[in-house]
Design goal:
ABC transporter transmembrane region fold, 4-stranded antiparallel beta sheet, 6-stranded mixed beta sheet, Rossmann fold, binds adenosine-5'-triphosphate, 601 residues
Amino acid sequence: MSTVTLIKKLWPFVQKYRQSLIGAFILTGVGALLAQVTPLVMEYTVNTVQDILDKKKQTQQQIAWIVGGLVLVLFAKEIINLLVQLGQKFLSDRLRFRLAADLHNYSIKRMVSYHLSFFALSQNQIGKLEKRIDKGIESLTKTVKNLFVDIVPMFANALLALALMYKKNIWVGVCATLIMPLYALISREQSKRQKLIRRNIQQFREEKANTLFNLIESIFVVKSFVREEYETSRQWKLTQQLSDSEVKHHRTNYLFDGLKSIAEQLGVVMVFVVTIYFVLNQQMTVGAILLHLMLFNNVSAPVRHLHRIYDEYSEALTYAEGFFDMIENNSYLENSQSKTINHWNLVHKSFAGTFEMKDVDFVYPNGKQALKGVNLHLEAGKTTALVGLSGAGKSSAMNLLAGFYSPTRGEILLDGKPLTGYDPHWIRRNVGLVMQKNHIFSGTIEENIRYGKLEATLDEIVAAAKQASLHEQILQMPNGYQTEAKALSGGQQQRIAIARLFLKNPPIIFLDEPTASLDAITAEQIKDSIDAIKKNRTVLIISHSISQIMDADQIYVMQEGEIIGKGSHETLYEAGGLYREIIDSNARTLNIGRLAATVLG
Ligand SMILES: Nc1ncnc2c1ncn2[C@@H]1O[C@H](COP(=O)(O)OP(=O)(O)OP(=O)(O)O)[C@@H](O)[C@H]1O
């Protein structure tokens, strides 16, 4: 990313802090002027002292005036300088923290508005994203701060000092300027070598954060397979690669810093020799020696830090690129963000709830084709079931209908209109989803159920928990509805998701194995509650439970991403094939003959 691009991208965030920016620039100018005071005062003092010594008739009063004046001027300058620096730091810090908060909020806003396919990309795994956001914001805000506290003040100071040197004597100015190309050359070479190392460091850091996330997330699996050592050595390898790159980075720095120090000393010697020459030829006063050396110090200070500044800046550019790529990825933006689409839901405020998939292919970002030429019809007010072996593409089809992903080919219609023409938020507001993995947030049971309807009263929450057959168990918990939801069993967590659905009470219901983790009695209770809510609503259900499948008005059978059959339970069973195999094997698993003998007597 170039500097111009970075400024263009940052400007919308920075522009509302224009006043702080202007204030910082004014203080920078004042600071640059103040930095030249000491060399000038020193020159004046040395020359005056030399004058007095030459005349050999100094009085105590003269000495007191010189010393007092010197102390006073330098002290006053330091006080003003301190105030200027405090002002600069305050303004830049304020800008930095506000900017960090704005960038953070904006990145979260963007991220949550992306399609799920964005999160399915390997470079967007949770740990990597977290690192990219953190490092991106940190280096961007650090750059802004450095600009006002380091870069601009130092360069303003250097330019003023150089101008003064030229004004005093053109040859001294030339000497001070001569080391610049040498310095720039060394710094450029240093940065060239560092660029690749820095990229590696960034990737290793993201990878490390991601592995750590995964490790903590899968700690149960790690422990149950006694893979602690294996995981530790995986982490160790990554850390080792990272630290190798970091050592290499610093080693290169030391080498080039040494070269730059030699270049700087060369500059000092040149300025010194040329000034001595002019002093000896009586074209300059003795005070000029001190003045020129001090001014040269002001000139070389930013040059001395050039590489560090460049280094931090290049790092910021690398991270900024990753950060802006992430937050400006419009191709993954859901169309609810689009201002140009006149969403169907705004035109036709009511809807029937008929879904249709026409010749739909779907390929995940990793290249896996999950759906091939799928044709599906969910009739409004009816229940449709999706049946098939594991990995057949049932959940993928449901995710597409809910607008989480877009088809790779073909189209999906809602009430005869393309799904892409609807606001996905509106669709999801009307669809109640109970997914295979029921995600519970850190927080209480009450907060978790309330997620289905944020403004729900406690009575409504309790009613929903009762419908989900969870209320009695919640009451037995140490803190009732205030118990941490993460502490619930798998089946209880699933019922939280079902309670959310009852609370939301949507016209369309998508259920992906809603009773998979439940015991038989609770499953039956939930089935009854779901049967009650199902009436006159469009329902899509994925289930391996015969009873839930049989009840559906229409059943689709899926195999390897394709629809291989549709119809009622009876017609599909009679037709034979995969559906019959599934039902028969279900019956065998249940040992239905023996079961019937014991249950029916
Ligand atoms: N996020 C993903 N990225 C890549 N491939 C995926 C993703 N999710 C699912 N798949 C793949 O797509 C195919 C269909 O998966 P899907 O979850 O739709 O099947 P399913 O019929 O619902 O299976 P199950 O009954 O086991 O839940 C599988 O081969 C799976 O590996």
